[in-house]
Amino acid sequence: MSSAVEQSPSAAPYTLDSELPHQRHLRKFRDILTKNLVRLGGFSIIAAIALIFIYLISVVLPVFFPADTKLKADYPLPSPAAGDTLFLSIEEQLEVGLRVTAKGQAVFFNAANGTDIENYSIPVPESAQITAVANIDSAEGIIALGFNDGTALFIKHHYHIDYPQDQRRITPHIEYPYGETPLKINPGNSTLQLISAATGNDELVILAYSDEKKISASVFNKETSLFDETVTLEHDSTSLLLNNANRPVGMLIDPELRWAYIATDEDELYVYRIDEDLSFFLNEKFALNPDGGKLTDLKFATGGLSLLSSNDQGHIYQWFQVRNKKGEYKLHKIREFSSGSSSISIIEPEQRRKGFLTINEQQELSVFHTTASRHLLSEPLAGKNIKHAALSPRADAVLLEDAGDRIYLYKIHNEHPEVSWASLWQRVWYESYDEPEYIWQSSAASNDFEPKFSLVPLTFGTIKAAFFAMLIATPMAIMGAIFTAYFMSPLMRGWIKPTIEIMEALPTVILGFLAGLWLAPFTEAHLPGILSILLLLPPAVLFFAYLWSRLPVEIRLFVPEGWQAALLVPVTIAVGWACIALSPWLETHFLGGDTRLWLDQALDIKYDQRNALVVGIAMGFAVIPSIFSITEDAIFNVPKHLTNASLAMGATQWQTMTRVILPTASPAIFSAVMIGLGRAVGETMIVLMATGNTPILDLNIFEGMRTLSANIAVELPESEVGSTHYRILFLAALVLFMMTFAFNTLAEVIRQSLRDKYSKL
Amino acid sequence: MSATTNKYNLGLKSWFHSGLPWIWLNAAAVSASLILVIGLLLLIAVRGLGHFWPKDVYEISHQQPDNRVYRVIGERIRTEPVGIQRLLDAGMQIDAGDRSQIERSLIKTGNRDITGLDFRWILDINILSENTPADITVLERKEWGAFYGYIKEIREANTIINSGATQYGLLNEKLAEVHQLLSQAKSIEKDKIGKLNYELERLRLKQRKLELKNKAGTASNTDIQQRQQALESQYQIYFQQLQELNNAAARTTVIMEAMGGERVEISLANIVRAYQPNDMSVFGKLIFYLAKLWEFVSEDPREANTEGGIFPAIFGTIIMVLLMSVVVTPFGVVAAVYLYEYANQGVLTRLIRVAVNNLAGVPSIVYGVFGLGFFVYTLGGGIDQLFYPENLPAPTFGTPGLIWASLTLALLTVPVVIVSTEEGLSRVPSAIREGAFALGATKAETIWKTILPISSPAIMTGLILAIARAAGEVAPLMLVGVVKLAPSLPLDGNFPYLHLDRKFMHLGFHIYDVGFQSPNVEAARPLVYATALLLVLIIIVLNLTAIYIRNNLREKYKVHDN
Question: Least packed by Cβ within 10 Å: which of A92, A395, A708, B262?
């Protein structure tokens, strides 16, 4: 680049004879002000690009932050006279805590300072004692209490929220979803030592371990009263699962009533399959900790598909049912977590995400996320010997009770546990999938849905689209540029260059809409024709060229040198038209009358109407001018003395082109391709409109893809600000930014060095 | 040039050896690109312009597989060959002899309210007869799309006022009367009631502001309440007038016979225009064509954007581009002046050039993401907190809108202005600078008074190119402020006249939305082509202007160095 004119001679500025001193100062002031403002303007360009980069990073980074926790409050046990705690809970707004006591009291207390709010007496039968307690449904707040007379009672803790005078007020209640009368579980009156239950739409299944050393499963039918919608339970059947067993460490039934798990104190896990008619079959039985270690806790992750087991060596395993090749379901160890070497006493799963926390015997709190395989936090706790832990519904606080009868409230800050660098870029084994996969699925209709954020299908789609576009654009653009810059007559060149500029300026929304609404159906209807154009055009051109060379000179001289391109226009049109016109004939005679069906049956290739071929053509069209302009400039600017020397030595035009001009211009051509690639990678509207936007991993040219850019355009308007999804979309933008930044910077560096080279030649 | 080597006819082998085939292949790449560009422009032009020409309406009787004969009235949209095999696969019963493919026609039958569909395919071999009766009338309606059929009666307040031969003339007469009433109603609704609503909303916000400052019950608050009551009563009066006008307009109806023989009563208030295309002369069609074209560029869209005009989209695009220009011009010119006139050639300048190239190369969607996050949520959210707390939690500037779209596009187009301006600066002869310095001018004066005026055509070129780029950009706009249907224009008669916080419509987004999000793509397709044509024309004209100015400038000042 030409340098700026240097500062004018030092004596001259700011002094004119007719000037007064204050005018002089004013002029000087203006000059300096302008200089500084202009400099600021120049730097602001760097500032702008840096701002984009930094802002994108600042939005993305919190996704990778670890969790942290803080002790908010600790206080002595509220209403200690009500008895020992059996069950502890905290509601969503973190205002009300609940402990259910051995004396049948439900004590609601202020979670921030431990003052009593309300005590409910649970209608425990006379002379009965609570011997077992089970958390049935955390989301609904249903717990089961088992008594020593073989009966059980279901209670529900419920929080009513209203806003008198714009102030939030939370009123806790205890309700009895299946009536206040305890349910007879065991035929005998033996004590229930451990129970567990799950409710379906019409049934309730209870697993119970009694002091007769039996584990049995009882099925009850729900009957809803027609008058007041109260639900009563009718006993249906009871089946004996295990006889003569020691007290199990864990018993669980999943909420879909398909599987039951019993973990014995001998580290044996019994897996029962539950049929449609609610009969139980032993599906498999195996050791949970074959490498040593003793089972300490067994819980479901939310949704009831994954089983979490912990042992006394500080390990937690995640298990779920996987269908093997024979179509049988087997429990599979999916992931392993470790919180140190100390025995884990409590696993507490989150209610709304697939995360959980653990507390070990060294009184350390650890936070994990299953799917993302993340260990987010390990922090020592204040309490002495934690007996109970209750995670809040939003997993933003945990309420703990220790052996010294104190309650601790810890806040947990853990906004984005569900994503890790590995889960974004590696295969992830999701629940209900047969194997680890790359999946992008950010939302679904169901509530239990776990979002799946793998950037691999999107990045693959981006590269696939760019690849096919470049496959079409690169040869067309470079060949066109070679001809235009070196062989074309100046007059025609004067027309071609603005045309290509217009081509570059065409909005991609127009290309995309034509590709989606016109080209895609057209290609589908004339696929054999389109493919035969690609195959037939080069030989047809060569054939015509040879015929032309055989024509008498008199005729050839009608068309001046450098107008071959104009001559070929009718040829190209004729070949194109012929191919399209022959397409139905080709289809009937060679492809069985229906190309799509033929592709599917003969070649096993799926065909989507909006596919990579359409995108390749449309995006190729968009990229051609970018590559063309730079390549053309570079070839045209190769110093003339080089080409003249080559021609003077007897080289042909084409030899000069390939041996002298192209090597000299090759760095610029490379940078042109880089810039074209950058454009293809970031192009949004064409892929948005001309593909089906399905995030698949398939290189098939007749299937679509979903690119990073189109994904952002589709999903960002609907994502919640600050959510994990939102931040991952920003990450997608950052990935795009960095990809194109790399391409463009490389291209620019090469061009700058080439400029130096040309100036030396 | 190359003719020397093959002046005499060469053999195939030596011809290949000469490298000529390669040159021809390169030439083919140019001609293929040329054909693609011109073919694309022609395709858009033909489809976009053809839509408004009144097409003949056919009355077709055709036989179904069950041997019953049906009457279909409609326009033939297109005819295409279709493979028999495909139809058989789809479960159709066809007796086409030994032909492998037959023709089928897409007929636009309209009458969506009766038949549920407004398009249907008919196999040409099933057609028994077709003709174009002169008295088929097409009604363009505000709801349910077009209606094709015959006029039977015209009624006013449920009494038949005419059923003779001049029905068509009378229908148009009555239609003119009804449209008169409706335009009065519209002016009350849009201008007067619109203004009242706007005023009421501002009063509500004022009141809320006072509440937030704990000044409810003060004098100004009672003032507001009085004003509110006055506006409310005014509103009642206008509302009364509006209802009277609407009732008057709804009194006249026309009874039409549809293709199935059903009689349908259609209120004239629901009819945009009525015409008999089969009875039109070429001149009449031309008048009709121009009227439709004018409607297209000057009217609001109807029926989920599948009918009517695109005026709000044109207007939105222009306003957005103008606002963008205000920002991008000074920014781009100053940066270019720095790069060319002030900066020393060093690492920093190189860095700035890399930054400029990257700004030009970063995908536009990334600007959209940045605009949404930084401008809308961070800046806009901050402005709301500071200046519009009375409106929260409803955002004022903390939501996508005109200002943010303009700023985002300004950032996106700044490299275009920089590159073009710099080229202009490089073409100003150094003699002019040196002359100015020799006369004692400071550097700032030299730049302001001589160099920038001389290079102003280059700046203009850059600006025009930036505008062309912005007018065609869609991806970032989808995130920062463009909507499919904006309730009101960003510029209107209510203070502060230019509403920077409003959402707006945009030509490019209109194409995407109508072509891909519309429930009735087949009906919307012609309008998409027409919109695309308009957009392409705007962009070509802008680019040609830029090329023209630039070439003139190049002629005027040949590059002074290099």
Answer: B262
Residue A88 is assigned to a structural domain of this protein: no
Distance between CA atoms of residues A290 and A268, nearest Å: 10
ipTM metric = 0.87
Residues B75 and B118 in one domain: yes
Q: Judge whether A179 is closer than 8 Å to chain B, CB to CB.
A: no
Q: What is the pLDDT of residues B250-293, one digit of tens each?
A: 888 888 888 888 888 888 888 888 888 888 899 999 999 999 99
* Cβ <8 Å between B365 and A684: yes
Question: Do both B66 and B13 map to the same domain?
Answer: no
Q: How near does any CA of chain A get to the CA of B442, in Å?
A: 5
Examine the pLDDT at B8 and tell me if it is beyond 70. Answer: no
Query: Can you read off the two tokens belonging to residue B203?
Result: 């009063």
Best of B6, B22, B26, B317 to disrupt the A interface by mutation (most A CBs within 10 Å)? B26
Torsion of CA B463, B465, B470, B474, to 10 degrees: -170
How do residues B359-413 score in pLDDT, each as one tens digit?
888 999 999 999 999 999 999 989 888 888 777 778 888 889 999 999 999 999 9
A84: region left, alpha or beta (phi > 0 left; psi from -120 to 50 alpha): beta
Per the CB < 8 A criterion, the answer to whether A323 and A329 are in contact is yes
Domain-embedded: residue A202: yes
Domain count, chain B: 4
Share of chain B above pLDDT 70, in %: 95
B128 touches A: beta carbon within 8 Å: no
3-state secondary structure A521-556: HHHHHCHHHHHHHHHHHHHHHHHHHHHHHHCCHHHH
In 3D space, the residue among B100, B255, B12 whose CA is nearest the CA of residue A591 turns out to be: B100
Chain A residues 672-731 within an 8 A CB cutoff of chain B = 675, 678-679, 681-685, 688-689, 709, 712-713, 716-717, 721, 729-730
Q: What angle do CA B48, B52, B54 make, to 5 degrees?
A: 140
Give how far B286 is from chain A: nearest CA, Å: 28
Q: Kindly list the residues from chain A whose CB atom is less than 8 angstroms away from the CB atom of residue B405.
A: none
Residues in A touching B393 (Cβ below 8 Å): none
CATH for A146: 2.130.10.10
Structure-token match 């593909």, residue found? A691
User: What is the domain count for chain A?
Assistant: 2
Q: Are residues B96 and B202 in the same domain?
A: no
Which residues of chain A make contact with B508, given a CB cutoff of 8 A?
507, 509-510, 685
Distance CA A210, CA A189 (A): 9
Cβ-nearest to A49 among B340, B358, B368 = B358
In this structure, are B473 and B504 located in the same domain? yes
The domain boundary, picked from B250, B270, B302, lies at B250
Give the range of the structural domain holding residue A685, as residue numbers without chain letter.
456-760
8 Å CB contact of B335 and A503: no
The range of the structural domain enclosing residue B223 comes to 178-250
* Helices B219-250 and B167-187, axial angle in degrees (round to 10): 180
Q: Report yes or no: A536 at the B interface, CB cutoff 8 Å.
A: no
Q: Domain ends where: B485, B500, B519? A: B519
Q: What are phi and psi of B7, to 5 degrees?
A: -60, -40
Shared domain check, B205 and B335: no
Q: Of A56, A553, A561, which has the smallest distance from its Cβ to B1's Cβ?
A: A561
- Asked whether the beta carbons of residue B353 and residue A569 sit closer than 8 angstroms, the reply is no
Give the residue carrying structure tokens 């009608």: A558
With a CB-CB cutoff of 8 Å, which residues 62-101 of chain B face chain A? Answer: 80-81, 83-86, 89, 100-101
- Name every residue whose Cβ is closer than 8 Å to that of residue B553 and which is 6 or more positions away in sequence: B424, B427, B457, B458, B461
Chain A residue numbers touching B512 (CB-CB < 8 A): 509, 512-513, 685, 688-689
CATH number at residue A732: 1.10.3720.10
